[in-house]
Amino acid sequence: MFYGSRTPAGADRLDHRSAVASSNLVVTALPGGDVLDVLDEIGEEVLATRSCSTPQRRSPRRPPRGTPGAGAAVRVQRRSPRTRVVKTLDTMDFTIMVDPLASVLAATVFVSGDDVAAKTVVTGLPGDLGWPDTAIVDLVGIDTAAATEQAGSLYFATVRALGDARFNLTVSR
Known about the structure:
This protein is an alpha/beta fold. It contains eight helices and seven strands, in the order E-E-H-E-H-H-E-H-E-H-E-H-E-H-H. A five-stranded mixed β-sheet has the order 3-4-5-6-7, with helices on both faces. The protein has a two-stranded parallel sheet with strand order 1-2. Strand 6, helix 6 (about 115-130) and strand 7 form a beta-alpha-beta unit. Helix 2 (about 30-40) runs parallel beside helix 4. The longest helix has 13 residues, at about 115-130. The radius of gyration is 16 Å and the shape is globular.
């Protein structure tokens, strides 16, 4: 596993382009407004055959910038049509992301993407983090990713109201 960084340091931390070139699966944990610039730096020839999961990094101190029109994941897919973009893990705080049932009784993680094989790989990531299969909801195409990206406003309003980020959106049936 490699970590791409604007300021790489250490044997496991590389510049973004080198980290992506060394990987089959790329997880971008960037604010939605920054992801296209970083992917442009990496280059289409490096991204072309990779699966790319795009959770949006969140910080209650710095809400995500608006993404007019299509959401970030759709814009990434359009910009890099040969990259298999899958959106997941973007509707919760990182503490829920990595240990979904430790702080909340029920949690849902959403997955959006057009490439079935890439979604199978990326859907394994929440499973590896402890998300039960029943908590994973496949919203189908990459065009549905904009809906989860827009949950950012609800997320930050809820953090402010509760004074705590240990919650998650849950589909209750």
